[in-house]
């Protein structure tokens, strides 16, 4: 079982959140590359392989906005403000995680035998406010509240990594310039990447036949996803979920499909299977225990669903760990 190691850092600058990843081990420390741009935006390039699972906790006081672009590696983070206020965030390839974690306890879980390739941008909310000259109308509701300072609660949002985003990331990674020219190039490309991500988050074009979702509706649909992922072993019914987030069941069903390209049940099933895969690779629980822990009706149901999704049985996957 991975250790739960606590570190404390105090660094000058707009934030020190990235420093909480230091001290996890030689291979990880060597795979971290930190850069401060002339604009004071901070970048962190992460490229390392984890042999043994790691659980790492750290406290955050003042926090920047973090745009985290995941290229490879599966992981999980828990953002906790109190016993009753927490969010679980899953990092996986080809996803973008936008997070804000002031006054919270964060726990990062890195899975064994994973190579992580992640690019983070750190920018203070007040700096983004200044960059946009206070024009926040086109931002998603949750980002608008963070940037204008009206919301100081932890939150995280996940979106697919678009082709345009991937192209900009490749250009940043393959930059062949040096010195001042490289710093200027990185500054421009980072701003381009931020603008592209903000634009993709705020697009208002609606394909024919789809619901017109207000920023409030999208925020409630994200909250619904957070609830089912947090209660993945025993999620609420669709009617109860709609009641909890404050929208009707029709808007929840159709809106969830629009936002996440999946039904509510499909998201529950996919998350259960993803967690099952990680637990099998860790090797601490039996197949029956994993099925029970994740809410499958019985072991045969778990094996059937797992085999359909991954093309192999849980038993064969567990045995492959030792090869």
CATH topology of the largest domain: Jelly Rolls
- The span between the termini is 20 Å
* CATH architectural arrangement of the largest domain: Sandwich
Shape: globular
Rg value: 20 Å
Under CATH, the homologous superfamily of the largest domain reads Jelly Rolls
Query: What structural class results from the helix and strand content?
Result: alpha+beta
- Beta-strand portion reads 15-25%
Q: What number of structural domains do the residues give?
A: 3
- The CATH class of the largest domain turns out to be Mainly Beta
Strand order of the largest sheet: 2-3-10-5-8-11
Beta-strand segment tally? 11
Mean pLDDT: 85
In N-to-C order, the SSE pattern is EHEEEEEEEEEHHEHHHHHHHHH
Architecture overview:
The protein has 323 residues and is of the alpha+beta class. The chain has 3 domains: 4-202, Jelly Rolls (Sandwich), CATH 2.60.120.10; 215-261; 266-320, Homeodomain-like (Arc Repressor Mutant, subunit A), CATH 1.10.10.60. It has 12 helices and 11 strands. The strands form 2 sheets. Strands 2-3-10-5-8-11 form a 6-stranded antiparallel beta sheet. A hairpin with a 5-residue loop joins strand 2 and strand 3. Mean pLDDT is 85; it is low at 1-15.
């Amino acid at each position: 079982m991975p250790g739960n190691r606590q570190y404390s850092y105090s660094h000058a600058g707009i934030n020190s959140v990235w420093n909480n990843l230091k001290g996890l081990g030689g291979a990880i420390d060597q795979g971290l590359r930190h850069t401060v741009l002339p604009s004071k935006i901070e970048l962190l390039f992460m490229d390392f392989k984890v042999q043994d699972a790691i659980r790492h906790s750290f406290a955050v006081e003042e926090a920047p906005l973090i745009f985290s672009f995941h290229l490879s590696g599966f992981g999980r983070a828990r953002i906790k403000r109190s016993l009753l206020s927490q969010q679980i965030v899953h990092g996986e390839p080809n996803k973008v995680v936008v997070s804000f974690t002031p006054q919270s306890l964060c726990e990062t879980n890195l899975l064994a035998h994973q190579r992580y390739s992640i690019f983070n941008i750190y920018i203070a909310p007040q700096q983004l406010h200044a960059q946009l000259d206070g024009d926040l109308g086109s931002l998603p509701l949750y980002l608008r509240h963070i940037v204008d300072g009206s919301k100081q609660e932890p939150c995280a949002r996940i979106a697919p990594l678009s082709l345009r985003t991937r192209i900009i990331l490749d250009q940043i990674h393959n930059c062949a310039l040096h010195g001042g020219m490289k710093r200027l190039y990185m500054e421009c490309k980072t701003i381009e990447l931020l603008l592209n991500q903000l634009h993709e988050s705020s697009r208002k074009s609606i394909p024919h036949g789809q619901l017109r979702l207000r920023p409030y509706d999208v925020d409630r649909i994200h909250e619904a996803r957070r609830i089912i992922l947090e209660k993945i072993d025993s999620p609420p019914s669709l009617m109860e979920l709609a009641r909890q987030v404050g929208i009707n069941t029709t808007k929840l069903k159709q809106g969830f499909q629009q936002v996440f390209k999946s039904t509510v049940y499909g998201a529950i099933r996919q998350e259960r299977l993803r967690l099952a895969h990680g637990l099998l690779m860790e090797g601490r629980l039996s197949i029956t225990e994993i099925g029970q822990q994740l809410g499958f009706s019985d072991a045969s149901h778990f094996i059937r669903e797992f085999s359909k999704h991954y093309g192999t049985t849980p038993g064969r996957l567990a045995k492959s760990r030792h090869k």
